[in-house]
Amino acid sequence: MVNIPEHEQPFYVFYYNLEKKENLEIAMNLFETSLDLKSLNINKDRFKNFLKDAIDLYKPVSYHNSDHALNTLNTGAYFLRQLKMYTIKQGEKMIFLLACYLHDIGHPGSKDFKNNSVELEKHHVRLIQQQMTKYKDVFMYNGNNIMKYMDLFTELIYSTNLLYHEDVLRKFTRKYFTEVDRTLIPKEGVGPEIKEIELKTLIKIADISATYKSYKTFRKSSLFLNQEVQGKAFKVCTESHQEDKDFLNMYSLPLIERFSAIFKNFKFLHENCKLNLELLEQE
């Protein structure tokens, strides 16, 4: 990719093989620059300790690790910057970014969990709740009660599971589109806003954001996932390409096509995803 507009460049960052200390510093900076921690009555030092303890619970697996957590957080923070013209409560921003960073906490590796189960999401939520309870002075201090957003937090974590993909996509589609002759047309008089269904859609896009980045990043991310699932070195083969094609066609493309039809400044993600599919076809 060449001539990337300056405002889009932060989206293409892809972290891997970071030490957790460096990961934590980058994450803390993203939280500080994305949120008004002072207005939330968040003690920065205690919050950083919370993040450190939480990130230590990520396991050294190939894909669902602290690098993936940081990439999802970085993308989520970028999305919030692109959506600054919309009203989003500081508490909701905090919960969204926490969900981005912690949504795969304690993941043992895909080969140890079936993807058609919500047990893993329950495991993630349970671990996060334990950590937040341990640091309740951070999240329930001087009128600050981030814990009141836990229902939203849980919904965001669950929405990252592919089992909920169709449900999230259907609700977003129902809100913004009408079907005419089997073609989806944006509804008249329904303007974009950021509520729960939009946040669910955004965290799903952030979670699979590698599919919307450069082809090199997309393939590298696929390599890491394949290593985790197979438990062995990645081998380029037709079957692996087909799995990637299926994923783009079934999940990545429908999601970003509809979201970017409403939120126009996300169009470049849609174009990138289509290009990645074309490049896969050429290999």
Automatic annotation (TrEMBL):
CDD domains: HDc. One of its GO terms (molecular function) is metal ion binding. Residues 61-221 form the HD/PDEase domain. The keyword Hydrolase applies. One of its GO terms (biological process) is signal transduction. Keywords: Hydrolase, Metal-binding. Pfam families: PDEase_I. The keyword Metal-binding applies. This is High affinity cAMP-specific and IBMX-insensitive 3',5'-cyclic phosphodiesterase 8A. It comes from Nosema granulosis. The gene is Pde8a.
